């Protein structure tokens, strides 16, 4: 049998290494093959309950009776309107939900973590959101 295996270009031992199936030393466990490892920065209840834009569109379509295309157009219109207003320096307040606005960040000194060198961080304008008390209450469950 050993002669049959050696007739080809590689023996059984080297053929396994060529396709990535090397032998493990005794006592070494196999590599994990399940789902992605747990991210310790996120609580367990957030791992599988994030909502993306498509899922939000589906929820809007279900609650309003609109089709997916119309719900996506409505969602895009709302988001575009908020972005344009905040970019123009306006405040957008949605009763019971919260307020979107732009906030000025002044110039400041920072530190390069690799070199320790002091650097200047330029002033900038950033979007901000402040949740309404009804939203905070709904999230906290009280």
Backbone CA Rg: 28 Å
The biggest sheet, with number of strands, parallel, antiparallel or mixed sense and barrel status, is:
3 strands, antiparallel
Q: Averaged pLDDT, please?
A: 83
Structural class computed from helices and strand pairing: alpha+beta
Poorly predicted sequence stretches spanning 5 or more consecutive residues: 1-5
Q: What share of residues are in beta strands?
A: 15-25%
User: In one word, what is the shape?
Assistant: flat
Number of helices: 5
Entry summary:
The protein is of the alpha+beta class and 142 residues long. The protein has five helices and five strands. A hairpin with a 6-residue loop joins strand 3 and strand 4 (118-121).
What labels would you give this structure?
flat; 142 residues; 5 helices; two-stranded antiparallel sheet; alpha+beta
């Amino acid at each position: 049998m050993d002669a049959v295996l050696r007739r080809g270009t590689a023996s059984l031992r080297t053929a396994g290494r060529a396709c990535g199936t090397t032998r493990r030393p005794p006592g070494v466990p196999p590599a994990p093959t399940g789902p992605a490892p747990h991210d310790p920065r996120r609580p367990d209840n957030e791992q599988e309950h994030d909502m993306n834009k498509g899922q939000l569109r589906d929820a809007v379509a279900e609650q309003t009776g609109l089709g997916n295309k119309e719900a996506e157009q409505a969602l895009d219109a709302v988001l575009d309107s908020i972005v344009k207003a905040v970019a123009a320096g306006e405040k957008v307040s949605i009763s019971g939900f919260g307020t979107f606005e732009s906030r000025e960040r002044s110039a400041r000194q920072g530190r390069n973590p690799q070199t320790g060198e002091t650097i200047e961080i330029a002033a900038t304008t950033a979007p901000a959101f402040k949740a309404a008390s009804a939203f905070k209450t709904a999230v906290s469950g009280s």
